[in-house]
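Supplementary Note 3. Input sequence used for the single-chain structure prediction.
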Amino acid sequence: MTNLTAPELESTAIAVGEAWAHELVRSLRSDDREIVGAWPGTLREARMRTRIAVRVKLELATFEELARVAYVAARRAWQGVSDVDPES
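The predicted structure, written as discrete structure tokens, is reproduced below.
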């Protein structure tokens, strides 16, 4: 099992999501692209990133919840810097 506590796991998932969003924003800005519209990430990507960051064996339900936490944190960080898509 794990030596990490639930709050530590959740904090890790939040950090994963925020880093993911910041990474994407930096990448788009370096290509002179706009940060516009809804969060482009997927839950599948959140699972992958969470799996890499949380290197302990977890129950599937716990892992899925952490991936959702990471996804929501990424989406929230993205929404903090993105502009509304004028075409939507």
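The chain is about 65% helix and 0% strand. The chain has one domain: 6-81.
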